[in-house]
Specification:
By secondary structure, the protein is mainly α. The chain has 14 helices and two strands; from the N terminus they run H-H-H-H-H-H-H-E-H-H-H-H-H-H-H-E. 74% of the residues lie in helices and 2% in strands. The protein is globular, with a radius of gyration of 21 Å.
């Protein structure tokens, strides 16, 4: 996780200065190569080193995809396609363990990793030739980032004068950073610790606790797609606003329902509770954690200058990385002193505070950077 977080941040900075298509393909090739090389050794220290390297090369994928999506889709479409892309981790999280287990049991774990590595290299090679950085690369019009329409001239191009420092000075970026920290921290906390809470303190069986995490993943997939699609309709109606965002009401609603769901899980759930009720809470928690995470990714890119969208996403993503760290040892430290119920109450309190922060900053200027945009024509 440390290697991946470092790489994702640095890749976000570099993707504004190089071809995202090349970054995506090279990262996937290197990931495949590391998987194949991994099978040639039997040393724990080598395994640890290679897996750290694997995290480094994997981190380049998401920033490259984010940059490409920003170039290809108007604001009124961007959230939907971003959300669809975001569900890839949920789908792979369900399919990969199942398929990997079948291959590993039939042919051994080394063959399983080698097959994954070869598949990654193959897809990377195809991506290098098929994926295009922007409509301009295939002779189409560039997409306007302010109105959701297209720039009139076929050769028109948005040119920004903002710097990274302009992004850092944006209060809106840091509000989104905090909300991202809370929601992604809740994602990791619920996935990592909910089974322990349900089995050790609520008194439910391990099989049902696993089903709870499954319901969370289902809610995550639906919430992610719904968040993008429904807020795109608002952006189509109101445009990309200079104060607040058309996506803000749904984001705030997600965070509020997350706090309520966590409260109900702790104070309104016990061993005698309806199993359907508990699964519903898992669905709501998944819906209201992954939905905001997807929206936050859209916001930090949508409201940033196009030429620094990767950098903006990199800074915003640090909030998710911080949340992941806080959901580990710090949250387990709370559990040691106040049990797992106390850890979930801590996440509830964090969600309430994030919701209050959003209400207080509802009409804050939402341009990330000075947004000095010129239209350059040829």
């Amino acid at each position: 996780m440390t290697a991946y977080s470092m790489s994702k941040f640095l890749s976000g900075l570099f993707v504004d200065r190089m071809s995202p298509r090349v970054m995506l393909s090279m990262g996937l090739v290197l990931c495949g190569v590391v998987n194949i090389v991994f099978t040639a050794f039997d040393s724990i220290s080598v395994y640890a080193t290679l897996w750290f390297v694997n995290g480094l090369v994997q981190g380049s994928g998401w920033p490259a995809c984010a940059k490409i999506l920003r170039q290809w889709f108007a604001p009124a479409q961007f959230g939907t396609w971003w959300s669809i892309l975001s569900t890839s981790m949920n789908i792979s999280g369900v399919l990969a363990p199942f398929l990997s287990t079948i291959v590993a049991m039939s042919y051994g774990w080394r063959v399983c990793l080698q097959a994954q590595g070869l598949l990654a290299v193959t897809i990377a090679t195809i991506s290098l030739f098929v994926v295009k950085n922007s409509p301009k690369d295939v002779g189409l019009e560039n997409i306007s980032t302010s109105t959701g329409g297209k720039v009139k001239s076929e050769k028109a191009e948005e040119v920004g004068e903002d710097t990274t420092w302009d992004l850092i000075k944006s209060p809106f970026l840091w509000v989104v950073f905090i909300v991202d920290c809370v929601t992604f921290g809740s994602v990791c906390g619920c996935i990592d610790w909910s089974q322990l809470y349900l089995t050790q303190e609520v008194g439910l069986g391990a099989q049902f606790a696993s089903a709870f995490v499954g319901s969370l993943q289902v809610g995550a997939t639906i919430g992610t797609i719904a968040a993008g699609y429904l807020t795109d309709r608002q952006v189509a109606k109101y445009g990309v606003q200079e104060r607040g965002s058309a996506r803000y009401p749904m984001l705030a609603g997600f965070v509020l329902v997350l706090a309520i769901s966590l409260h109900l899980l702790v104070f309104w759930t016990n061993a005698q509770s309806s199993r359907l009720w508990i699964l519903l809470l898992g669905f709501l928690i998944g819906n209201c954690t992954f939905g905001p995470v997807a929206l936050i990714g859209v916001l930090v890119i949508e409201h940033a200058p196009k030429h620094l969208s990767g950098t903006s996403h990199a800074i915003g993503s640090l909030g998710a990385s911080l949340g992941a760290v806080l959901s580990g040892l710090p949250l387990s430290f709370i559990a040691v002193h106040y049990e797992w119920a106390g850890a979930f109450v801590a996440m509830e309190i964090a969600a309430v505070l994030a919701f209050v922060l959003m209400i207080v900053t509802w009409r804050i200027p939402s341009r990330i950077g000075r947004k000095h945009i010129k239209i350059k024509t040829e």
